[in-house]
Amino acid sequence: MSLRVALFVEGSENRAIRRGPLLARMWSQLAHAHGIEEFSRVEPISKKHLIAMDPELPAMSGAGEALDQLMVRCLERDPFDAAVVAWDLVPPKDADAGFCRWRETLDLYRLIETSSILPEPWRAAAARRHLEMTSRALPSHRRKPHRVAPHELVAVCMDPMFEALLLQDERHVLRVLELARRPPGWPTQGWGSTEVRQLDRQVLTPMIDALRAGPSKQWPRVVKTIRADARNKDPWLEYLLRQLLDDADARALVLAHPISRRLHECLAPP
After folding, report:
1. Is 21 left (phi over 0), alpha (psi -120 to 50) or beta?
2. What are the tens digits of pLDDT across the range 53-96?
3. What is the DSSP code (8-state) at residue 35?
4. Quick one: DSSP state of residue 216?
5. 75: region left, alpha or beta (phi > 0 left; psi from -120 to 50 alpha)
6. Where do the domains of the chain lie?
7. Other residues' Cβ atoms within 10 Å of the Cβ of residue 4
8. Pick from 91, 130, 206, 241: most CB atoms within 10 A?
9. Are 168 and 190 in contact (CB under 8 A)?
10. Helix or strand (DSSP H, E) at 259
11. What b-and-e string marks burial along 149-167, b requiring 16 or more CB atoms within 10 Å of the CB?
């Protein structure tokens, strides 16, 4: 019997209802591309869910439900066997901590281990994982990939954010958007760069703005298909992922990205 795996993934909290189906669609597309079964459920989260669980961090404005509370609520409503928690590294959970993926991952397991409300098997599994990670001489010294198993929570820290999967090669993006050339205002920096951290603001937003510039009758076909501006990036992300996965060259690049490889190693059949 296969495991029921729930995905708790960072998304725009103020659009949780609208984004939920799009998140599920995007991650289902990635799962299918890797030959992985669909997630049993996909729940949008934000940094607020992680911060609300950590008493060492100051409360974020508007913070409410913590991640462990959300997990318990989901377990009671629609049980699952294992979970993946995926969040964007940028912006960081703790603004004073810099961009330390290792620290944020350790914190996640520590907070799950010390939760007062999660069932004991989940806390015990997180404790084992936290002990294994803190016992390493170096973060890279892992014995084997951490895979989903009953009551296991697997962390996927997306470096720097989900958009990194899609904005690796400008040529691929132009091709799948059916553009023969860059439109005026199109971003020329940040494609596939490890130095540009805020890809949503520095690449995706100006890209969408450039496509929507000028009279609507001159907009390229993709704008009329998506019918959303840069304030609602979700339909653009879903469309880009779908089109890139349908393009042989672009598909190979998307599936080779570290975020994608991490998903595969923790979920794909051995």
Report:
1. alpha
2. 988 776 655 558 999 999 999 999 999 999 999 999 987 766 55
3. T
4. G
5. alpha
6. 5-159, 163-247
7. 16
8. 241
9. no
10. helix 258-267
11. eebbbbbbbbbbbbbbbbb
* Locus of tokens 């840069």: 230
Q: Contact at 8 Å (CB) between 92 and 98?
A: yes
Q: Is 56 helix (H, G, I), strand (E, B) or coil?
A: coil
CA distance 223 to 209: 10
This prediction has a pTM of: 0.91
C-alpha span between 66 and 69 (Å, rounded): 5
What pLDDT does 133 receive?
A: 95
Rg (CA), the chain: 19
Measure the CA dihedral 183/189/191/192, to 10°. 170
Tokens (6 digits) for 197: 């951290």
Structure tokens at 188: 């020329």
Can the peptide bond before residue 160 be classed as cis, meaning omega within 30 degrees of 0? yes
Name residues whose C-beta falls within 8 Å of residue 86's C-beta, 6 or more positions apart in sequence: 7, 8, 9, 10, 155, 156, 157, 158
Instruction: Please tell me the distance from the alpha carbon of residue 255 to that of residue 69, in angstroms, as a whole number.
Output: 32
**In 204-213, which positions are buried (b, 16+ CB within 10 angstroms) versus exposed (e)?**
bbbbbebbbe
Q: Give how far Cα 270 sits from Cα of 108, 148, 264, Å.
A: 25, 11, 10
Quick one: CA dihedral 246, 252, 257, 261, positive or negative? positive
Place of tokens 């553009």: 179
Q: Helix, strand, coil % (nearest 5) of the chain? A: 50, 10, 45
CA atoms within 13 A on the CB side of 26: 27
The two tokens of residue 32 are 């299918």
Q: What is the pLDDT of residue 16?
A: 39
